[in-house]
Amino acid sequence: MPKRKAAAPNRAFKVADQIQRDLTELIARELKDPRVGMVTIQAVEVTPDYAHAKIYFSLLVGDPVVTTEALNQGAGFLRNGLFKRLQIHTVPTLHFLFDRTTERAADMNALIAQAVASRSKEE
């Protein structure tokens, strides 16, 4: 018996992209939690069965631990907002995770600049 081909191989990526766009708007306009500051959604990973979604975010100002807690507490409200916007059968359970990529990139840039400065002093 031949294997059944997936209906849309990029569908998970499209759903994740749409979730990212909708969550950005929902957090900015409808989430009224003072603990959530200026949040940027960096990436969304959706499981193949669309049951769970990991939402990676970064902050401009604020405490990452408090913001993560606030977003995870508001996940039900945000999921309900997604349910109204998305045209899929199963809206995933949202899990918010703080993304330290931008911090690490800034640290690496500082180290590189320091190494270049010390090298130019030696020459």
Tell me how many strands there are: 3
Oligomer: single chain
Overall form: elongated
Lateral strand order in the biggest sheet = 1-2-3
Count helical runs. 4
Which structural class is indicated by helix and strand composition? alpha+beta
Any idea what the radius of gyration is? 19 Å
Task: Report the helical percentage.
Answer: 40-55%
Give your account of this protein's structure.
- The chain is α+β, with helices and mostly antiparallel strands.
- 50% of the residues lie in helices and 18% in strands.
- It contains four helices and three strands, in the order H-E-E-H-H-E-H.
- The chain has helices spanning 11-29, 64-73, 75-85, 101-122; strands at residues 39-46, 52-59, 93-98.
- The chain has a three-stranded mixed β-sheet with strand order 1-2-3.
- Strand 1 (39-46) and strand 2 form a beta hairpin.
- Helix 1 packs across helix 3 (75-85).
- The longest helix is centred in the last third of the chain and has 22 residues, at 101-122.
- The chain is elongated.
- The model has no long low-confidence stretch (mean pLDDT 88).
